[in-house]
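User: I'm putting together a teaching handout on how sequence relates to shape, and I'd like one worked example. Could you take SDR family NAD(P)-dependent oxidoreductase from Oceanobacter antarcticus, show the sequence you're using, and then write out its predicted structure as tokens right after it?

Assistant: Happy to. First the sequence, then the structure tokens directly below it.
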Amino acid sequence: MKLMQSKVVLVTGGADGIGRGVVEYMLEQGASVAVMDINADKLATLQAEVSPDILTLQGDVSSLADNQTLVRLAVERFGKIDSFIGNAALFDYFTPLHKLDDTTLSDTFDRIFRVNVLGYINGVKAAAPELKKTRGSVVLTVSNSGFYPGGGGVLYVASKHAVVGIIKQLGHELAPDIRVNGVSPGATDTSLASVEGVSDRAQPLNSIKGFQEAAANAVPLKRIAAPKDHAHLYLVMASNELSPFTTGNIIHSDGGWAVK
């Protein structure tokens, strides 16, 4: 039997990168999947290349209304929701404090935190009433930057530390009806985009010269992760059968970075 047979999973930021890897694996394991992403073209590609049965919605995670629309459409299509997976994020291109432009700092902060932090809060708030009915689960994407410096600039690192706090607090608040956990990926071969205007050198993460080699050499397993390398852990944390007594916790998928 497939591990997610008859389950319904919502994924934000699911059209590319780690999110797409999670979507593909959930489908392989029998789940019905609804995806919200800001990029309409990538959503169309996801349906064309992976499955036309995926419910897609172009939307902004920083909008509570868009998250509520995703929940409503998923319930209309599939009848329920068993798990919410929050994954959408913006990067800051490793920009240190002294290089953040004085005139745009506030706007840059607002956009990163609205996506990386408020986006998760919106998603959980929108999905919680349905998850309570199914005694469902929440899984949020953290990052090594939620625990260690150097994986981004001050804004990205601060936003990911905030996600750790969300998981702990909501694991406490939403118990016993909803489990809340996280997966913390290390460096992954994705096109994670930086917030507009943070740096005139900004480019997709996996387009940075030498990024893959540097990331591989930085961890004991000596390779960079592919997006789908993390997907199994999202399933474990989402499944009430596989992790029924786990909440408020974060599992690391980082090639051994933490043990360095």
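A couple of points you could highlight for students: Residues 8-259 form a domain with the Rossmann fold fold (CATH 3.40.50.720). Residues 137 and 179 are 5 Å apart (CA to CA).
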